[in-house]
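RETRY 2/3 - previous attempt timed out on the joint model. Re-submitting the same 783-residue input unchanged.
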Amino acid sequence: MKDQSYAAAKTTQIRLTRRSPEYWRVTIDHPPLNIFGPEMLPQVNEIITAIETDEKVKVVVFDSAVEGFFLIHLDFLAKLDDLAHLPPGPSGLHPWPEMLVRLSRSPVVSIALIRGRATGMGSELALACDMRFASREKAILSQFEVGAGLVPGGGPMARLSRLMGRGRALEVILSANDVPGDLAERYGYVNRSLPDADLEDTKRLVNVASLPPDIEIESGWNACVASMARPATQQRIKTLLERGFCKPGDAENHLGDFVGR
Amino acid sequence: MKDQSYAAAKTTQIRLTRRSPEYWRVTIDHPPLNIFGPEMLPQVNEIITAIETDEKVKVVVFDSAVEGFFLIHLDFLAKLDDLAHLPPGPSGLHPWPEMLVRLSRSPVVSIALIRGRATGMGSELALACDMRFASREKAILSQFEVGAGLVPGGGPMARLSRLMGRGRALEVILSANDVPGDLAERYGYVNRSLPDADLEDTKRLVNVASLPPDIEIESGWNACVASMARPATQQRIKTLLERGFCKPGDAENHLGDFVGR
Amino acid sequence: MKDQSYAAAKTTQIRLTRRSPEYWRVTIDHPPLNIFGPEMLPQVNEIITAIETDEKVKVVVFDSAVEGFFLIHLDFLAKLDDLAHLPPGPSGLHPWPEMLVRLSRSPVVSIALIRGRATGMGSELALACDMRFASREKAILSQFEVGAGLVPGGGPMARLSRLMGRGRALEVILSANDVPGDLAERYGYVNRSLPDADLEDTKRLVNVASLPPDIEIESGWNACVASMARPATQQRIKTLLERGFCKPGDAENHLGDFVGR
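RETRY 2/3 succeeded.
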């Protein structure tokens, strides 16, 4: 039933693909600009709800099927009256900022792969994700709103100042400038700017999908001890030890690659 | 009357120039070192008060007329007894840290253009501004105080750790080292280090001076909707749409430049 | 007596050397991997206690005597049952995270010089230090635990997100990737990545050891005025003035070097 509904959803502008039960892709496909039309809001809601309620999904990657654009701003050529005045969600926020908050709070690891313009709502969606990776050649991030006499509505000031400090956050918002990938990395707007060809290689993050289901990010000693006692972890450590873990040699010299395999 | 008082102020060490009612420059002109003499404290106070009480000013840029120096430390050759023991201001802080807090809190966008040494109080003034841009060739920032057995008095520890994290803030303060422009950018001490010839090109920020008067930086959906309803914004969006906004083409491909024009 | 006990400690895996009463080195020397065996926990405790109780020490530098390794993870080949279930310390935390918190809170300036792999507990120790400097050629930092199905136990999520923002902190922890020195600098994981040959040149920080004993990092005007009144500071400023401080010339043009001499 559920899969059926998503098969249907493929004709909409936002496409959900389950690459595995744990690893989902959400692909924005609304050519030519990936502009945000009012009809996309319920689609985003449906996807966030699926992320929140599915019991297996662990990693969601947001990307785009449209060359040059990740997701841009509201379509001011569309009828916007209804959108602006939608009733607030349970938290009291307007549905758009509320969906962003829901995404940030969900236990799923969310990653934005930015290969084109992510401006306005596109920047806000990327900022609501847990991580952001940018194509060095193609990514442009911005909060353009102030340049049009508008105020950004999805909370970028709060998120930007935590990522890059108040001075740079004010610059991004008040200048309304385009921020290309490499500068976005220097400012902390994205985790990293990578050659476009390497961007897909976030597989190490996607590997998180193979983790035991109860990993807690909020690290603490009790969680650490509990994780040691888990049979799956015991087995994993046993395997790692058989392969050279805790002894001089390749395993310890390249531990990051070693545990990633 | 007021203009008259500022014309008079031109003979002092800190010069206020109104390039327009919205855009002011504050130029420190106390050769040869832009050293901070006790007589400058009331001048700074006068300028901060003008910034706080003027109804039109939106952007204030701080710079220097002295080659090689933005603003440095207290003049220890001057009589300092009175300065150290001035009565506290309304907030309970000493007048100097209080003026810095007043500048940070004022709704005006404040920008430091650093083309020389900004050490001690100069660094503290820059840190109290909303943004800082540094000349790659000429800027040097530092909190030199600990090197002289002194404690910095204008609160740099609080501001530096929010900009660059605790480890780097401790290094800047405890090492008392000179920090040149490019390193200052890597540490987040300044927004960006730019070739000296490009530094003046902060016009995009100065353009903020043309914004509607009620732009709120604290972005939220309600402020966003309110901004959409503003007649000036409606007109601006109409103009942008006529020029290609929301349609494929140059406007969307270079949105940052487009809205900046 | 005390020195005697530290002479004895030289046969253990963690060596304390007093280069002067104010400047100590703590050297991890447990070849071939500097792996963390359960027997090291009381040794770390002894050193942290010495740091907390000594009245003269001002700077403690942590380094390694083992080529290629700073300090790595728990030795899973050792008997760990006792370690995991040690009674909590006074704060209620397990002894390991508690020792790290005690180090961070001590008034001593703590510096990690990272010339090899600092993974797991090694990364946690470095993060608990006030500052971290990395060898460009040799340093590798990581929290590898999630890659082994484990949760890090020494609180890296809290410390990493304050240093590099939430997005990058999540990436470091969830990817479990090796982070080489230069990337560690770009992420804010370390203060700076330096050529290995220059790493020892943190002498400016070690100079802090010559500071008056009551310097307060939490800078404020009252502390500043108090520091001015100190006879040692008065003498220092007098000497600096005699050498050109507050006058045009070399002293002011290179103030960082000048006060550092």
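Confidence is low (pLDDT under 50) at residues 1-10 of chain A. Closing ticket.
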